[in-house]
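Reopening this ticket.

The earlier resolution said the output was attached, but the attachment link was broken on my side. Pasting everything inline this time so it's all in one place.
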Amino acid sequence: MPPIEAPDQAQQLPPQFARRAPSAPAPRPASRFRLLIGALVVAAVAAGVTALLMKTKPATTAGVGAGSSASATASASAATTTTAPASPTPTPSPTLALGDPAADPIAYLEAMRGQIDGFIAQGQDTIDPNTGRDLQNSLADLQNAITGAQNNNSARQLRTARTKINDLEQKIAGDTDNGTLSQGPADQLTGELQNLDNALANN
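Inline output:
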C-alpha cells in the first residue's frame, strides 16, 4: 500500500488561515525620542559653527582694514616728517683785501684780477669763464695804462686810464644783461672800479 502524502498546509488551509510574512515591528517611542534629540544636537552644532564663522569673518576684515588704515597713517606720517632737501646756499662772493687804490693802484688791480678767479671758481651761475678771462684782460690793459701814466707823469695817459675804467664798467653792465655775469659780482666789481676812478681823479 503506497504511503499517503501529507497535503500542503498552505494550499490546504483557507486563505484566512494562511501564514502572513511578519511585518517590521513598529518603532518604539524611545527610539523616536533619541532620533529627535540627535537631530536637535546636530542643528545646534551647525548653528554654533555658522555663528562662529560669521563672527570670525568680520573680525578678519576689520583687522585687514585696520592694518591698511595703520599703514596709510604711517605712510602719511612718514611723508609729513620727511623734510625737503635744503636748497644749496649760494656761495658768497670772495672778498679780498684790495688795498688802497690811491696808494697803490697796480696792486689794487692785481687783487681785482684774483677776485675774478674766485668768481670763476664758483661756477657758471656766478660768471661765465670766458667772460671772466675777458674782464681780467681788460684789467691788465687798464693796469698797463696806469703804469704808463705813473712812469711818464702824464695827465693825458691818466685820462686815458680813466676812460678805460668807464669802458670796463659798461662792459660789466653788458655782461650782466647778457646773463654771463651775475648781479652780485657785477655790483662788487663796478664799485671797486669807481673807487679806483675816484683815487685817480684825486691824484
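Reporter confirms the inline version is readable. The CA atoms of residues 34 and 40 lie 10 Å apart. Helices lie at 9-12, 29-81, 105-121, 129-152, 155-178, 183-201.
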